[in-house]
Amino acid sequence: MTGIIPFRGLLYDQRKVSIRDVIAPPYDIITPGMLDVLYSRSPYNISRIDCGMDAGGDDEKNNKYVRSATALNEWIKSGIMKYAESPAFYLYETTYTAEGQTRVMRGVFAAVRLVPLGEGVFPHEKTKSKPKLDRLNLIQACRANISPVFTLYDYPGFDLKSLFDRVQQSPPYFECSDDDAILHRFWIIDGLSEVALVKEAISGRDMFIADGHHRYETSLEFQRIMRESEASTYRGDQAALVEKGLATPGEKGYDYVLMLLVNVSDGGITILPTHRLLRSIPDDPIGPLKGLFKVEHVKSGLDSSANLVNSDNFANSYSSGITGAIRGKAGTFGLYLPGSDGFYTLEYTGDVPEGIFGMDVMILHEIIFKKLYNVWEFDYEMDPQKTVERVKNGDFKAAFILNPTKVGDIELSAKTGVRMPAKSTYFYPKIPTGMVLNALEPKE
Hints:
By secondary structure, the protein is α+β, with helices and mostly antiparallel strands. The protein has helices spanning 19-22, 32-41, 47-50, 64-78, 129-142, 161-167, 192-202, 213-227, 238-243, 312-326, 360-373, 384-392, 407-416, and strands at 4-5, 10-12, 81-83, 89-98, 101-113, 121-122, 144-145, 149-153, 174-177, 183-189, 207-211, 256-263, 270-272, 275-278, 293-298, 332-336, 343-348, 379-381, 398-401, 426-428, 438-439.
């Protein structure tokens, strides 16, 4: 059964750093160029811990994970980071623009009891071994959850809106806008009655991982390792939590993982599509599709031999046309091939095989890529215009444009145990790392 408890979060001391300078995007979307910028922004940017750099001569005793742990301990010792005064939940609100609309999403950072996947916490995407090993090395070295698992639950019957509104009447612990003009605000909820209300509202709910599958599975593996060792220690705040009826006796820090929990019923959630690019396609890429798809060729009206082909207007016109043609149509994709006037729309008309449930990304991978095209390697791109450009420029031979995955499909995938391919969802905006950390073995 799922359960949440408050925790003494590790927080940056705003008297010593600017929050804007020390938070960072999640590790898995940081490019090398972005990492250089983050490192130069502040000697205390969280990316220095979450995304340590390799160095010449690294070995088991001196490597990026050891350096991350050393830096974290030094920041705590010097007061750059400090523990919250008492166990708390942490209210987070982000205001952003997506699809031309301003949206607001609120959630709560909490320590969430680890349970086997499928027993209250449900994944929807497949994971890979390399990222999990990286995250395991980091958690073993730092003994802390550096970045949260972004998780959804759906509970329209219990409304925390009034509590959140009341909390937000006081000044936030911090407020800042990031490089994308997304506003982040953060409050500490540590009143006993408020903490109890949040715990009651969310504990026992089914939880669906949105972002952070690797982090959750890594935490399960770390829990297994720690249970088999003799080095396990109680949470530093465990006794106080048990005394207040907010935790279970005998639980350890490694029995929990840091999560941001967002109620689907509150709205504000945006999922963007991630498009696919192929380097290899059949000699006749259209023929194999016609038996299972309604294929329509949409002419662009642009002369592919004209100068327009070398301008941004070409890719912008094509990508806008494709996304507009498929928008809101289930089981429908856009296909762009180089050298053709226009693009294709593909509407699936075949029977839905068992285990696919009519989900767009599953149809694309299982029917088109595996069955009809026999391709297993592809690249990803968020921006539809860049997706078209990368084919037009000759880097790839075909681009498949998708609609965003629906929240309902995520829940269906999670509950049935049928995992979607990697990058089936792109939740926007990404939850910054560094707003609060969960120390599994507090130093004080």
